[in-house]
Amino acid sequence: MAGLRLIRTYSSDTDEDEDKEKKNIAKKNKLALPESILSWKGVLHHEEVTDDPLDHDGRIRSFKHERGNWATLIYINYAASDCLHTWMNSVLKELPVKGDIISKLHISLSRTLVLKFHWIESFAENLKLLCRRFSRFTIQLTDVRVYCNEEKTRTFLGIYCQNDDGILKCLTEALNGLLAEYQLPLYYKDTSYHISFFWCLGDQQMYLRKILPSLTRSLNECLAENMEDNYINVDEIQCKIGNKYYAFELR
Asked: What is the pTM of this model?
């Protein structure tokens, strides 16, 4: 019996030695991670995002960036003709302030809103149903006006847009009703529909107002030579939520 125990002990010790040897070989064969990778650090999920105006040509966010909040805008898309693009670029030579021509043109139908993630699906669906209630309409371009955002951090030049049949006003009122359901800020009380085509930093209204008559005169000359550019036929409403774009047809 003693001999049998010795055999078992020897066998057990041998197995343990073999296991240790296999582990040592595995460790030697295992590639070590480079120091550059070992130095990597993950970003905390709730780390606050710092917005640097230098990354946006000096522009400042109108609201703080927070996870789960989606910047939202309801608008009418506008594609300017070559003639109007040429006119807009020619305006830069006449301006007393430095700024830039806006490349993506539109007519805002809401403020820039903050939409919660869990609202997006229902908000988009309700907006779609709302648009189906309204007929297509026409907008006329009239004159050049100056605008400034609420924070007085940016000033804009825009082409004023007029709708004679009242559909645009009724549509805006209906949109305000939808925004109220989500406890979102309504559109401006004294609505001035326009296509912003130029922007600059700061409150420059005083300087730009002086040249509005000459800008309107040159705009009207351009429109007189290209009558088709006087009007915009609106058949759908756009909505941008975060990086997603929606288009809702009017009836």
From this structure: 0.75
